[in-house]
Write the structure tokens for this entry.
Amino acid sequence: MPPAARRLMRYLVTGGTAAVVGLGGFGLLRWLQLAGIPAPTCGFLAATVVNFLLSARFVFRMDATWSRYGSFLAGTLGGLTANVSVTAICMGRLTLPWAAAKTLGIAAAFFLNFWIHSNFVFRNRVGSRVARAEGPRS
């Protein structure tokens, strides 16, 4: 399997793990009766920390630095924008059921985030430890 395909599969596992953390954090905060915006916000932020740490080490095999985390969050906003936009278009213009629309939005965000994180946040530099270990990028 090509290195890019292996990274994509690891990214899928990482994203799934982060989704469970986000949902679990949200559920815990709701159980503690934290209402409104703070519960999903805290769940989302916990998920982004887990996603970043796992992506850095497990997917891209790079150090998890503060500057890289800032870039990761900026890239994640692109995914959020794609998710919301695709979901809205699918529900509004295409009149898809909400579950189908949201699934397409999540898929769009997943692939956009992978592309952003691969090409900007965790970009291999020629001669780096990861570039030598995985060979040329595909």
